[in-house]
Description:
Elements: H1 4-9, E1 11-13, E2 19-21, E3 32-37, E4 44-49, H2 50-59, E5 67-71, E6 84-88, E7 94-98, E8 101-104, E9 114-118, E10 124-128, E11 131-135, H3 137-200
Antiparallel strand pairs: 1-2, 3-4, 5-6, 7-8, 9-10, 10-11
Amino acid sequence: MRTLAEIKGRSVITEDGHWLWRGSLRRDGRPNIYAPDYTHANGALRTQCGMRAVWHCVNQKAVPEGCRVFGDCDEPTCCNPAHIKCTSVDDGKLKRLLRGIYELVEVFPPARTISKTVLSNGAVVYDIGDDVLTLSPQEARVLAELSMGAAGTAVLIQSTNQHLFLATELAAQVEKQGREIKALKAALKLDDDDRQGSLIA
Ligand SMILES: [Zn+2]
């Protein structure tokens, strides 16, 4: 696969514009593509993650230091360059979910100053930046009730994030233990081979 056209040719193009790779996949479900690698091999052909292969074919240069190339749509095998992003990991726009799995963080404009004043007639005035919102006492009550719900949602979001963090940590631990077990098995086998070798001798 030297060109984007070749990669596209090996993909199924869906109605909503995804290019689903038909070739081999990596263990994480991403495409494995043999293509020019400007980051590690000066443009020589190398097997690499499909997202990077597409990015290399399009840009024909190395992935900038500190940047990550990742799929930005919901199809893990998608090779459409319009669905592949390259962003710095450190600018806060990318959130690391698991090793090698990133997600774009939504960016909002800076928060405006908010103040609340209760008038003597019971009306409530909210100043939000340059906007002024005057509520009748009844509207203010409804808003307060709705906000209580939002407080509950905020607690839920917090706990979900904590679980995600925990899952990430656990996945890292399991992976590490897997590597250790593999190393241990290899060491045991060597030991065994040694012993048999000395018996025969
Ligand atoms: Zn896509």
